[in-house]
């Protein structure tokens, strides 16, 4: 939701501003700091009158009667990130101390005005020798760090986060530090900083939507989208924290226009090849939802020259979205896209594959309501045996111990291996809420976890092909 904000200047019945400074002029930093300390870094209201920026400390109770028909509109600015609970007649300004000689005034989601120390040797300085000078300029407000703040806030709003709390958190981070990380990183950091312990499990007495809203400061619309993009059955197999982090990843990482065009123009039920692929492997596009009753698409890949060299017992499948498919096809397995605290890895991440095509289809139907893709790999047991491989398929007690510690975020023996194989847990997401929970293994649902780069590089070259469900 966007609002058009109007800055207004009072014509009468207004107290003197806390201070007034013309753009491109200088004021004593000592005076500025004294003023800020006197009024405390709370919430102020800023008004713009041509080239003059005026700052008042105004309480919410004073706002209604201060605005009346005697006000004059001075300037309109379109802002996409103003929360609905912020009056269209005023803008909150937060005073944030950055260092001993620097303060920043943040108009949340709109722009920054900085007060920074100027060299005492500057020729334009006429103050005492040891007096610091603050210079407020329009150019300074457009520095890359400040622009990045706006970009991050824009992204956070698009993801459905309430901006009052997010903006307050963001201005606590130095603008010099912000450019070192992506928007995805900072939004995830915000979630991590404010995450509640109960975000690691689902409340059986609450609707999933209501529980998400309780755990995270997001809009109702966002909660609905997150809940509705997967089946209810699969939703409970991961924690609320997993889903909010997945939502951030999904929205901040999109397929390239080139790949989307390639998929859009691909002929249905025909093998095609993507020019930017790491290895030349066929891509088979179908216009339907994945269906376990119709699995003929895999036969087209197995009929290729490389596919004919494989055998069914050595085929593995990774189901992902379109962005994930492009990344894997063009860059190979990226462990940075994998999640911690899954079945096989407490302090390490894994790239998970199904050993049954129908199970991969079933997962795709539950996990991705819209388009998805299945990457088909040929991974013979001889390849796994050339590396450190842990088979958890026969020892149920060892499997329980590994999954229990992995889901709890604790190191265990699987973290030392290049790969691991064993059943999927049906109730692993409930462990954090109930540490004494008895884990249950899925019957007939096994998974292979690739855990190291030295193995994943070889697995990358063993892609048989890709099936994209375009619907």
Automatic annotation (TrEMBL):
The record's listing under Pfam families reads: Crinkler
List the subcellular locations.
Answer: Host cell; Secreted
Protein keywords: Secreted
Q: Name one GO cellular component term.
A: host cell
Q: Where is the Crinkler effector protein N-terminal domain?
A: 11-84
Q: Transmembrane residues, as ranges?
A: none
> This protein's superkingdom?
Eukaryota
Q: What is this protein called?
A: DUF3990 domain-containing protein
Q: Which organism is it from?
A: Rhizophagus clarus
């Amino acid at each position: 939701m966007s609002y058009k904000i109007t800055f207004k200047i009072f014509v009468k019945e207004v107290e003197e501003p806390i201070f007034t400074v013309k753009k491109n002029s200088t004021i004593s930093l000592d005076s500025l700091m004294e003023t800020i300390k006197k009024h405390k870094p709370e919430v102020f209201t800023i008004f713009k009158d041509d080239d003059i920026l005026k700052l008042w400390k105004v309480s919410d109770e004073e706002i209604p009667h201060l605005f009346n028909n005697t006000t004059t509109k001075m300037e309109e600015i379109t802002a996409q990130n103003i929360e609905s609970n912020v009056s269209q007649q005023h803008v909150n300004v937060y005073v944030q101390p950055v260092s001993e000689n620097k303060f920043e005034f943040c108009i949340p989601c709109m722009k920054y005005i900085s007060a920074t120390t100027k060299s005492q040797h500057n020729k334009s300085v006429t103050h005492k020798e040891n007096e610091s000078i603050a210079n407020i300029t329009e150019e300074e407000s457009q520095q890359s760090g400040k622009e990045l703040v706006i970009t991050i806030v824009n992204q956070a709003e698009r993801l459905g986060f309430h901006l009052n709390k997010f903006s307050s958190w963001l201005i606590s981070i130095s603008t010099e530090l912000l450019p070192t990380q992506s928007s995805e990183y900072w939004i995830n950091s915000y979630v991590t900083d404010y995450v509640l312990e109960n975000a690691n499990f689902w409340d059986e007495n609450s609707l999933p939507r209501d529980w998400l809203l309780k755990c995270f400061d997001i809009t109702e619309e966002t909660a609905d989208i997150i809940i509705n993009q997967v089946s209810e059955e699969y939703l409970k197999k991961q924690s609320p924290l997993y889903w909010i982090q997945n939502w951030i990843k999904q929205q901040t990482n999109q397929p390239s226009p080139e790949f989307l065009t390639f998929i859009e123009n691909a002929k249905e039920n025909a093998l095609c090849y993507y020019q930017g692929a790491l290895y030349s492997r066929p891509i088979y596009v179908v216009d339907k939802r994945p269906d376990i009753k119709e699995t003929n698409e895999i036969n087209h890949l197995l009929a290729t020259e490389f596919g004919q060299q494989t055998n069914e017992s050595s085929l593995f499948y990774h189901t992902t979205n379109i962005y994930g498919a492009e990344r894997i096809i063009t860059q190979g397995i990226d462990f940075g896209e994998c999640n911690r605290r899954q079945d096989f890895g407490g302090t390490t991440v894994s790239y998970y594959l199904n050993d049954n095509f129908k199970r991969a289809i079933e997962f795709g139907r539950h996990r991705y309501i819209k388009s998805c893709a299945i990457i088909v790999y040929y991974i013979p047991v001889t390849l796994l045996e050339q590396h450190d491989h842990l088979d958890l398929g026969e020892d149920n007690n060892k499997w329980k111990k590994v999954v229990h510690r992995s889901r709890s975020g604790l190191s265990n023996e699987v973290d030392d291996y290049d790969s691991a194989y064993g059943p999927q847990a049906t109730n692993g997401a409930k462990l954090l809420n109930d540490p004494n929970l008895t884990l249950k293994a899925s019957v007939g649902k096994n998974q292979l976890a690739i855990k190291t780069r030295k193995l994943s590089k070889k697995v990358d070259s063993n892609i048989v092909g890709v099936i994209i469900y375009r619907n």
